[in-house]
């Protein structure tokens, strides 16, 4: 059957706009990037990035977002110098956060949660899920600072992260004091904020001099500028009771 030029063009555009996206458990779907299915909307998921603009995000301790962050190929991208860490406009307490990230060769970034803006830097209050090229960055040599770790506190097992240039799907589940880190469908680790174990680990880390660290009951979600190109897409959240 012959297709008219108009129909062929429409089908081609539709194919190009569809992206292989990962679900929270790491399986791949043909769902278009930065969209929600009817079931996801029904279940309470909302998008934190629309795939077109930086709306809903701003720099840490600022009301605007720097030009070092841009939207490129439907991804929220740290693409320029002096980009700075960015945070959501809204604050969150308990939530299920899922997003895709892709880092450049040797790249480093991170996903922060419950960030307050009392300190000069976001990492003075907000725990971090590490985003990293494990193969090339020095932090990849230690499980404490490799991709998916609770940076410098809880180790991430090897083998879950995909190489630089490939998309990874991260899930960060924060429910009260209980936190889980997932990567590409694998549960990496869990911990309890404020527990005796947590307090001991903080006391043995660089965060021991930061009285705000990990103390906030709610705060902003943040994305880190560590000087490298990193891309984020399909950023969605479900607020938990």
Strand tally is 15
Question: What is the averaged pLDDT score?
Answer: 91
**Domains counted in the coordinates: how many?**
1
What radius of gyration results from the CA coordinates?
18 Å
The low-confidence parts are 1-19
Order of helices and strands: HEEHEEEEEEEEEEEHEE
Strand content: 25-35%
- Approximate helicity band: 10-25%
What structural category characterises the helix and strand content?
mainly beta
Number of helices: 3
Biggest sheet layout: 8 strands, antiparallel
How far is the first residue's CA from the last residue's CA? 54 Å
CATH architecture: Sandwich
User: Looking at this structure, what is the CATH superfamily?
Assistant: Exo-inulinase, domain 1
Provide the CATH topology.
Answer: Jelly Rolls
Anisotropy-based shape: globular
Per CATH, the class reads Mainly Beta
Would you give an account of this structure?
With 241 residues, this protein is mainly β. It has a single domain, classed as Jelly Rolls (Sandwich). 11% of the residues lie in helices and 32% in strands. Strands 3, 5, 6, 8, 11, 12, 13 and 15 form an eight-stranded antiparallel sheet that branches.
Secondary-structure blueprint of this entry?
Blueprint: H1 5-17, E1 21-22, E2 28-29, H2 38-42, E3 45-47, E4 57-59, E5 69-72, E6 75-78, E7 86-88, E8 95-103, E9 108-115, E10 128-132, E11 168-175, E12 178-183, E13 186-192, H3 196-203, E14 220-223, E15 230-239
Antiparallel strand pairs: 1-2, 3-15, 4-7, 5-6, 6-15, 7-14, 8-11, 8-15, 9-10, 9-14, 11-12, 12-13
